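# step 3/5: fold
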Amino acid sequence: MSQRLSFDDEARTEMLCYLVIGEFVAMARTGEWLRTDHLVESVRIWMQANGATCDWQDRVALAQTAAELAPNVLASLQLATEQSPAQLFVDGWMLDYRSPIVCEVHRICAARLNCR
């Protein structure tokens, strides 16, 4: 039996960071933000990869927050969407927390969730 991740404030922040960066990937690849169904799938992927569980209200709230936050974060970090989003990941779709961009997005996400 695998151990399940407690869906605490840090887990919420990590999921939100993952979703915001997922939005960056979508913008870089397609020129558009993620559709709702893709956000839902990204939540599912993150939860499965991290052994997390949370109720649907938390999932919806975080996906909605990511969709609202991503354009502002992208603009504030002055990231060019043409930059390869691959630099933000290691081992496939795991975020690279050694990346200054990932660390800054995480900080912004933590601040946003603390404001609620």
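# step 4/5: annotate
The chain has a mean pLDDT of 87.
# step 5/5: archive (pending)
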